[in-house]
Amino acid sequence: MIYTVTFNPSLDYIVTVKNFQTGMVNRTVDEIIYPGGKGINVSMVLKNLGFDNTALGFMAGFTGDEICRLLEEKGVKADFIHVEKGVSRINVKLRSNEESEINGMGPAIMQEDIKKLYEKLDQLQDGDVLVLAGSIPSVMPESMYMDIMKHLEDKKLNIAVDATRDLLVNVLPYHPFLIKPNNHELGEIFGVTITDKDDVVKYAKKLQERGARNVLISMAGDGAVLVTEDGQEFRAEAPKGELKNSVGAGDSMVAGFLAGYLSTGSYAEAFKMGVCTGSASAFSEELATKAEVQALLDKCKNLF
Ligand SMILES: Nc1ncnc2c1ncn2[C@@H]1O[C@H](COP(=O)(O)OP(=O)(O)O)[C@@H](O)[C@H]1O
Ligand SMILES: O=P(O)(O)OC[C@H]1O[C@](O)(COP(=O)(O)O)[C@@H](O)[C@@H]1O
Question: Per the database record, which ranges form the Carbohydrate kinase PfkB domain (predicted)?
Answer without folding.
Answer: 12-288
